Structure formats: structure tokens, C-alpha cells
Amino acid sequence: MPHILAIESSCDETAASVCRDGTILSNIIYSQEVHRQYGGVVPELASRAHLQAIIPVVDEALLTANVSLDEIDAFAFTQAPGLIGALLVGAAFAKSLSLACDKPLIAVHHMQAHVMANLIKTPQKNNTPAFPFLCLTVSGGHTQIVLCEDYLKMKVIGHTLDDAAGEAFDKSAKILGLPYPGGPLIDKYASEGNPGKYKFPEPKIKGLNFSFSGLKTAILYFIRDEKIKDEKFIEDNIADICASIQSRIVSILLNKLKKAANETGIKNICIAGGVSANRGLRRSFEKVGIDEGWNTYIPPFEYCTDNAAMIAITGYYKYLSGIFEDLSVVPSARAPF
Fold first, then answer.
1. Of 141, 179, 268, 323, which residue is 20 to 30 A from 259 by alpha carbon distance?
2. What pLDDT is recorded for position 90?
């Protein structure tokens, strides 16, 4: 029963997790608050915060799992993609542990790990998708449809041509004057609004790819024009505006996912990534799943946003396959699966 210690440091969360034989024993996440005052993640500050947090976070992960460092069989870390300075902190720490303990080192792709979060079993969620399955991965930096044929055999069959869905949420929130991070606030206000109140365009992109830059521009011009007519437009209509924006982003995502399911004939469908924590997306995904006859799967909230449990479960299957790295492995800000 191998024990894997995993480290995630791709952006502004410092996280560590221990898994034993594919079961998550701990999942510790330290979220950096320093970025709120700047309205977004400041890469240099993120790197410094990782340096301060990584030792206590790893310590807590081991203590919570009731596992000693000597019992760890391999060390996994996020190798790509992400902020290069942030990735370097996690990579250097994992390398140091691997060298000091003379145990294997496992490099994990962040987006692959988001997909693998659907394979984490919990007391509340004991069912996982059978292969093959499709996974819609949606985050601040990525929007993809991934065809998963086996634990480590994945292929991106659709991706965004410009901006990601998470960025569309965050930039829309910024246009509305909402504080960072704005995506969860749009979700909150949307629950109280009318999603059909304002109509935003859906891009006509061929195939299974996405585009969100045009939608962001349409939202920007709509808000600008309405504020010219009424300075209190946002304040008086915030719930309906957020509901309408969220409804369009969700419809863009799910229409492409339906197309992918129809083209591949696959009925096992998952979502993953930070935006999969969005309640509007989760509800709509489950409804579409019922209408389309899908078997749907959504990770628990704690495994949607950046976390180390998803790195641990991916590291576990890489361990079983004997896929290790030597100390020359380097992080990459951008890298395909």
C-alpha cells in the first residue's frame, strides 16, 4: 500500500496531501490572502508566500494523515502549468525530500490532475466514472474537453482559442466592480437573479473549441451603455446581470460538451477544475445529464479548486506504472498533457 506525499503550488494556493493506496488521508490548503488588495494574483508575492507556507502545510498534511516521512514511498509535485516562480518552490521542495529520503520523484500535470480528481473516492462519493469518459475541465486559465481512455491516457479534443471560462467570470466581475476573486460572487448573486433578463451572445466556433473573448467584450459594452443611461444600473440590477452572465457562460460550456458526447457516443461525463465549484454550472450540468441520459460525475468542492489531493491521486497511478523523474526535471509555465 504505497504512501504518496503530494505538493501543489501552481498559483496562489500552497497545498499538500497524503494518499495511501489511492485513498486520500489528508488534503491541506493554504490560500494566500495577500492578492486581494491587488485585484489579482501577483506572481512574485505568490512565490514568497509559498516559501513561507510550504513547510507548515506539508507538516500538517503528514500529521493529519498520521503518517511519518519515513513511511512515504514517493513524492509528487505539480510540474506544469502555472506561475513559474510558484512552481519552482513546490518542485524544489519535492526534489529535496526525494533526495533526502531516497524515494522516487513524480511530476504531475496540473490539468491532468484536475481530471483525475473525479477518481477520488470519499465516504460521500464512492462511485467514479468508468473508462472511457469525457471531462470538461474549467478553470481560470484553461477550458478543455478531455477524452479519458485510461488512468494516464488522455487526449484534449476541445480547448479555448483565447480566454478561459474562469477568466470570463473574473473579468465580468471586475467590470461590475466586484472585489477579487469575483467568480464566486457572480455565482452568489446569480442565485437570486433572473438568468433570462439580459441576452448575451454565444460565439459560433466550429468543432469542439471554445471562445470567450467576444463574450467579455459584449458584457463590457453592455455595462458601459447601460451605465450611461442609468448610473445606478449595476447596483439596482446586480442579481439579474450576474444570473444572465453566468447563464451564458454555462450554456457555452454545456453546448460544446453535448456536442462532444454526441460525436464520441460516450455517456460517462465529468466536470473538473475551479469553475466546476460554481453552483450554477453544477446544477445545469446535472440537469443536462438527466436530459441526455448521461452518467454524470462532479468532484466534491474541496477537490475542484486547486488542491494537492488531485496531485496525490495522479501521483499514485503514476507510481503504479513506474513513471518517475530524476532530479533534472524542471517546472514549465505552459505544457501540454
1. 141
2. 98
